[in-house]
Amino acid sequence: MNLGEINELQVVKKTDFGVYLAESADADEKVLLPKKEVPEDTAIGDLFQVFLYRDSEDRPIATMRKPLLTIGHYAVLRVLQVTKIGAFLDWGLEKDLFLPYKEMIGKPAPGDEILVTLYLDKSSRLCASMRGIYDLLSTDSPYRAGDEVTGRVYEFSKNFGTFLAVDDFYSARIPVHENTKHLKIGQTIRARVTARKPDGKLDLSIREKAYLQTDKDADAVLELLEKYHGELPFNDKASPERIQEEAGMSKNAFKRAVGKLYKERIVEITDHSIRKV
User: Fold this and answer.
1) Does pLDDT of 132 surpass 70?
2) Which of 74, 82, 140, 254 is deepest in the core (most CB within 10 A)?
3) Which of 202, 163, 200, 198 shows the shortest CA–CA distance to 180?
4) Across the chain, where does the E strand assignment appear?
5) DSSP 137
6) Which pLDDT score, from 0 to 100, does residue 260 have?
C-alpha cells in the first residue's frame, strides 16, 4: 500500500466505524476506510479504488475522494492559510496539505493559486513542494512564434529568467533580460511566444513588438532620468548587465528608447552619460 497514490484494495474486515482494507485477505497491513465513506451493501472481498494519506492524528487512512494531487505529479492548488511553519493548501480532502517553508519559492499568500508537487517527508508524511515543476512540464506544445498564450509563474532565476507553465502544462520562460520584477509566483499572465526551442520549450515575452514598445521604454527612460536629476551616469554603450539593473530592459531596447528621445531632441548623449536637454 502506497501513501500519496490511488490503491486498489479489498475489504477484509467490517466494523461499526468503517471497514478495513488490505492488498489481500491474509495481508498483515490494513488501513481504515471510515464508515461515512463506505458504500451501502459493502461486503468482504469487495475491491475499492482509494487514496491513502494520514489523518489529523497522523494515522494512515483511506478515502474514496480523489485528491487534486498524487505522488509523481503536480497540480495548481489554492493557498488557504500561511502560518509560522508553512502554508496549508486545499487539495480536495478533509485534511489540508502542508507546504513547509523550506519547500516554498517566494512568499505565497492566502488565496494564491500555485503549482506544487507532492512528496513524502522523512516522517512519511505527505507534503507539498513548489520545487521540481520544471522537470514535469510538457515540451510538446502546439504553440509557435507569434502566438498569444497564458502562463502561470512558478519560479524566478537570476541567470535564466522567469519560468512559467503555459496552460498550466507546457514549459516556458521569459528571458532574463526582460523586466519581470512586478510579477509574483502563482500569477497568470498573457504573453507572446517569441521562439519554440529545438527541445520544445517556449520563449515568451511580455513586451509588445518593438515598434509599439519603444514609446513605453522611452517613458521609462525619462522616469529614470528624473530619479537621477536629469542625467544618467552611463550611456547606451554601457554593459547589458548595467542597463538591465538600472533600466529593467535589454540593451537593444534601451538603445531604441534613447535613440527615439535623441531624435526628438529630448536628451543628449555624451561619452559617459545621457542628459535631459
Assistant:
1) yes
2) 254
3) 163
4) 6-15, 18-22, 31-34, 47-54, 60-63, 74-82, 86-90, 97-100, 113-120, 126-129, 148-157, 161-166, 170-175, 188-196, 202-205, 231-232, 267-269, 274-276
5) S
6) 85
Say if strands 60-63 and 18-22 run parallel, antiparallel, or are unpaired: unpaired
Name the β-bridge partners of 209: none
Query: CA 118 to CA 103: how far, in whole Å?
Result: 11
Phi and psi, residue 118, nearest 5°: -125, 135
> Which of 145, 146, 175 minimizes the C-alpha distance to 240?
175
Alpha carbons 153 and 9: distance in angstroms, whole number: 38
Count CB-CB contacts under 10 A for residue 167: 15
CA dihedral of residues 139, 92, 60, 27 (deg, nearest 10): -70
pLDDT digits (tens, 9 = 90+) for 218-248: 888 999 999 999 999 999 899 988 998 888 8
Rounded Cα distance, 272 and 232, in Å: 9
Is residue 204 within 8 Å of 174, Cβ to Cβ?
yes
pTM over 0.85, yes/no: no
DSSP 9: E
From the list 193, 207, 192, 113, the residue with the least C-alpha distance to 153 is: 113
Fill in the amino acid letter for 147. D
Q: 536629476: which residue's cell?
A: 229
Confidence of residue 112 (pLDDT cuts 50, 70, 90): very high
CA angle (169, 103, 56) in 5-degree steps: 100
Residue whose grid cell is 475522494: 65
- Whole-angstrom distance, CA of residue 49 vs CA of residue 52: 10
Q: What digits encode the pLDDT tens for the residues 50-64? A: 999 998 888 899 999
Q: What is residue 110's three-state secondary structure?
A: coil
d(CA 80, CA 116): 14
